[in-house]
Structure prediction request, 271 residues.
Amino acid sequence: MDKHYTALQTDFGDLVKEAYCLLTQRAQDYKPLHKLSRRSAAAASIFVLISACYLLAGLSLFKSTPIADIKALGDIVIFDVGDSAQLETLCWSFKLFLAYLLINLIFAFIRMKTNKLCSCKQSKKDEDDKNKGSEKTLSENIKCKIFSILYEQTYRIYFLIVSSGISALLFFEWQQLMPVFFAVGLIIFILSYSINRKFGYTRAWSRNRLYAEKIRIIDARYKSGIIFRDKAHEDLLKLLEQYEEQTHQDTVNDYISYGNSALNTLKGLRK
Prediction:
């Protein structure tokens, strides 16, 4: 038998807690990656749409329409700083990002203070200590919670795209900026979507969250007397088996579909 093998809990109540905490923790692990890829794609798509509208306004088709007035915005520079436009854009981009991140971290730590310090994720050492009657100290709980909060906030890196775009609009001529917006925004959108699709961040987050809620429903049905303990235990084991099969199918399908999409794109370019 593999030395890493760990048997499932045989008691229904313990199995419910173990499975629910495991799936909830997995959902939390994938949540920042899911949010980062989706919000990066959303932010990039906004700049793509703005730049596309600006570029379309320059076509002769819209020359005699009010849409052509958008093209006149290309000569506008809100803050003309000359050759230092790139430096100013970079500085203000990070200033806006840090201000945004600081505000969100403050609110996150406020929530930490108001919520009970607890965590579903426990190592084997924690389990052994618990069996011996020992408990984690408050300082260890706080450190664990702080690390968790910092990790959960990593998805806010997407705001760098937003802050960079806003800063660039302030210091550059829009006529020079819009083609760059369109190209860079399109690249970020494609990369964000492709990475999410390849590694299945959104699918994994949603799957773990869904099965965790299904476990709660089975537990609620048992505690409310709708089903007996043996039936609830059987349903829970079937659900866990279904979860493992679904995880396997999602992983394989993500890999295959991503590869097929890439090959189809290459075939389309050849034509």
Notes: The chain has a mean pLDDT of 80. DSSP finds eight helices and no strands in the chain. The radius of gyration is 26 Å.
